[in-house]
Design a protein that fits this description.
The protein is built from two helices and three strands; from the N terminus they run βαβαβ. It is of the alpha/beta class.
Length: 60
C-alpha cells in the first residue's frame, strides 16, 4: 500500500469549478491521486475528507 497522500482540491463555490477541473487533470496526468470537493454546502464531507491522509489545496 502506498503512503502517498491524496491531493484534496477544495473549491469554495461553483464559480471556481473550471479552475479546479484543469488543475485536477494536470495533477492526475502526473500520476497524482486527486479528490475534488466543493466547500459550499458540503461542510461535513469536507471535514471528513480532511481527517484522511490528504494534502488540502483551496482553489480560488
Amino acid at each position: 500500500m502506498s503512503s502517498e497522500k491524496t491531493i484534496l482540491l477544495l473549491t469554495p463555490s461553483a464559480a471556481e469549478q473550471t479552475q479546479t477541473e484543469a488543475l485536477a487533470a494536470t495533477l492526475a496526468a502526473q500520476g497524482r491521486r486527486v479528490e475534488q470537493l466543493m466547500i459550499e454546502g458540503n461542510y461535513e464531507r469536507v471535514l471528513d475528507a480532511l481527517a484522511g491522509a490528504v494534502v488540502p489545496v483551496v482553489v480560488k
